[in-house]
Specification:
Blueprint (H helix, E strand, L loop, with lengths): L1 H4 L10 H23 L8 H25 L3 H5 L1 H4 L3 H23 L4 H23 L10
Helix pairs in contact: 2-3, 3-6
Length: 147
C-alpha cells in the first residue's frame, strides 16, 4: 500500500508540506464526491433525473481528480500519448484534452434530463439570480459622504 501511495501526486518526494497539500486536495475531492452523491437534487425530480444528476456529479469529481489521475506515476501516465513525455506542455495539453472530453460527457449527461426538470431548474436558477440582483440593489449599510 505504501509503495502504491508513493506514486500519487504529492507523495512521490516524501516532502511533508507536499503531503499536507495532497491530503487536503484528496480529502476535498472525497468530501465533494460524498456530498454530491448524498445530497438530493435542488428541485423535485424523478428517479431518472436523480440518477442523471448523480452521473453528472461523478463526472465533475473526475474533473477534480484528473490532475492526480493523469500526472501521478500510474499506468495512465505511462500509456497515454500526451502524458508519456512528462514535459509541462505535453502534460498540460493532455489535461486540457481530458477536461474537454469530461466537459463534453458532463454536458451530454445534463442534456438527458426530462423537459419538466429542465423547465423547473431554469425557473429555480432564474429566481435565485433575480433574488441575488435584488439583494445587491438594496442599501443595507448607509455610508455618510466625507465632508
Amino acid at each position: 500500500m505504501k509503495k502504491e501511495a508513493g506514486k500519487l501526486l504529492g507523495f512521490r518526494s516524501d516532502t511533508p508540506w507536499k503531503k499536507g497539500i495532497a491530503l487536503i486536495y484528496y480529502g476535498s475531492c472525497f468530501v465533494f464526491f460524498m456530498i454530491a452523491m448524498i445530497t438530493p437534487p435542488l428541485i423535485p425530480a424523478s428517479s431518472a433525473d436523480t440518477v442523471i444528476t448523480k452521473i453528472s456529479s461523478f463526472i465533475l469529481t473526475l474533473m477534480l481528480l484528473s490532475p492526480a489521475l493523469f500526472l501521478s506515476d500510474t499506468f495512465l501516465r505511462n500509456t497515454l500519448p500526451f502524458f508519456k513525455v512528462k514535459s509541462f506542455l505535453s502534460s498540460l495539453t493532455g489535461l486540457l484534452i481530458v477536461w474537454a472530453f469530461l466537459m463534453y460527457f458532463f454536458l451530454c449527461s445534463e442534456s438527458l434530463h426530462s423537459p419538466e426538470y429542465k423547465t423547473q431548474f431554469n425557473a429555480f436558477i432564474s429566481a435565485s439570480y433575480d433574488s441575488f440582483v435584488e439583494a445587491g440593489t438594496n442599501d443595507f449599510i448607509q455610508i455618510d459622504p466625507i465632508e
